[in-house]
Amino acid sequence: MTGTSDDIPRSGMKGWVKALFAVSLTLNLLVFGVVIGAVVSHWDGPRGKPSDHARLRLDPALGPLARALPEPARQAAMAELSARSGPYDARRAALAGQLNDMLTLLRAEPFDAEAFRALFVAQTESWASRAEVGRDVVMSQVAALSPEDRAAFADRIERGFRRALERGAKPRD
């Protein structure tokens, strides 16, 4: 029997499934960021005792490498990010509001996929914009480091990511 295109079931995802997949991916990336943050938080301290870096609250937009910056550069990066993109606390409050709106949309019947998509896109664009500013701020701080400070920065990154580097070098079975 010859098959026609009408005989083959469609396997395309519905819009709400795509949105749910995007939310799931975002949450997975957030968990990954928390894990990286936990690894990085013990850089200069002995095992089991957090270092000064662990107690320092950094804006996530600066990324995990910002923890390895020398203290003056780290402080300057936080100040510049806040000046260019607004204070983190305001962003956190906005995120909480968006999350509440998202939960309301997800529980509503009928589900408004377009409203959910618009909110999700706005949230993603907002964080991407702040992360881009954070990346530029960290890049400018790294570029201004002396050769000695840059080498120490590389050493701190290597210590902070040692386990990840070792796991990445091992072949998987």
Short description:
With 173 residues, this protein is an all-alpha fold. It has helices at 15-40, 52-55, 71-85, 88-107, 113-143, 147-160, 162-169.
The topology string of helices and strands comes to HHHHHHH
Number of domains: 1
Our estimate of the beta-strand percent is under 5%
Cα Rg: 21 Å
* Structural category: mainly alpha
Question: Number of DSSP helices?
Answer: 7
Main pleated sheet: none
End-to-end C-alpha gap: 43 Å
Number of strands: 0
Low-confidence stretches: 42-46
Shape: globular
> What level of helicity do the residues show?
55-70%
The overall pLDDT, averaged over residues, is 78
Task: Tell me what you see in this structure.
The chain has 173 residues and is mainly alpha-helical. The protein has one domain. Helices cover 68% and strands 0% of the residues. It has seven helices and no strands. It has helices at residues 15-40, 52-55, 71-85, 88-107, 113-143, 147-160, 162-169. Helix 1 packs parallel to helix 5 and helix 3 (71-85) crosses helix 5 (113-143). Residues 42-46 have low confidence and may be disordered.
